[in-house]
Amino acid sequence: MTLNAAVIPEPDLLHWNIANVDRCRLAHLPPGDIRALVRSNEELPPMPALAKQLWALRDDDNASAQSLAETIQLDPLLASQILRRANSAYHGGVRTIDSVQDAVTRLGFNTSLDFALALAALSPLRTPNQGPIGRDRLWQHGLRCSLVMQELAKQQRGAIQLPLGLVQLSGITHNIGYFLLGHLLPEQFHFLSRLIASNPGLSLPTIDRFALGVEHTQLGEWLYDAWEMPAPLLLAVRHHHNPAYKGDHEQLVLLTGLADSLLEQSGLGLGGCHPTEDHDRFLARLGLDPTACSDVIEHALAETPLGPRAP
């Protein structure tokens, strides 16, 4: 007799035992070696051509707001997102603007460039839009995380010294591993998403390892390595759940992890649970006061410039 996976509820991993494993072995069979599936997949998306152009502008000392606006306008969707961002309550002034160059001027060159880079990097990944790690929810979580990180970096300049553009880019894209999983392996993505919804008391890396054998942070690292992304972003993607991380670009990694933890504590995470001791270690490692963090997240979330849909 064949078990029908559709009629077996997703397991509560906190109470998982050998009987469950035997009863559900067909319904919850691990999806194989995800590393092999990802690395052998012929549809692993290359870095988008537009992202390459934007990276070239980032390295060009002579780049201007006009050249950036002209590059952004090559993609109508990207242009509309930049305009939406510039006209949001967080960034907007009293006057609505309708040109990309005016949007770049209002946001600032570096902020506009790194926001455009994040959009360009995520745009080719066709991730399903259902469940706790659905596309729109990942996008909104990234925007919130980016904003919390920027506010902390601005208000704690003595303790945190990072370029705001890099902070923004890390915040938006740190969960790109989930985007990649949904793009390449939608069946495994849906299975993982259901497990996350069924197990709010466990951390996301714990659930990832049970469902996939790897963490979303590793998937993101593999993609960023293939795209030859800068080391600070690759390390933040890989280690943002690790409060014990020590090494290059340590502040960016820890700040990304802290913002992720703050959002989870505020009920605006992706699901799962950051251990309290991990949250406290992020604070201690960065030398930040919990009260200051509470003020920052309250301010940031009150003015989060969220769009209704992901790029």
List keywords for this structure.
311 residues, mainly alpha, Hypothetical protein af1432, 2 domains, 17 helices, 60% helix
Account of the protein in words:
With 311 residues, the chain is mainly alpha-helical. The chain has two domains: 47-124, no CATH class; 129-311, Hypothetical protein af1432, CATH 1.10.3210. 60% of the residues lie in helices and 0% in strands. The protein has helices at residues 18-23, 34-40, 49-58, 65-72, 76-86, 100-107, 109-122, 135-155, 164-173, 176-184, 186-198, 204-212, 216-226, 231-239, 250-265, 276-286, 290-302. It starts with 17 loop residues before the first helix and ends in a 9-residue tail after the last helix. Mean pLDDT is 81; it is low at 1-8 and 16-31.
Give the strand tally.
0
Over the alpha carbons, how many angstroms does the gyration radius reach? 20 Å
Distance between the termini: 44 Å
Going by CATH, the homologous superfamily of the largest domain would be Hypothetical protein af1432
CATH class label of the largest domain: Mainly Alpha
**Integer tally of domains:** 2
- CATH fold group of the largest domain: Hypothetical protein af1432
Q: Could you spell the SSE succession in H and E letters? A: HHHHHHHHHHHHHHHHH
Structural class per helix/strand content?
mainly alpha
Helical fraction: 55-70%
Chain-averaged pLDDT: 81
Any idea what the shape is?
globular
Count of alpha/pi helices: 17
Poorly predicted tracts of residues:
1-8, 16-31
Instruction: Identify the CATH architecture of the largest domain.
Output: Orthogonal Bundle
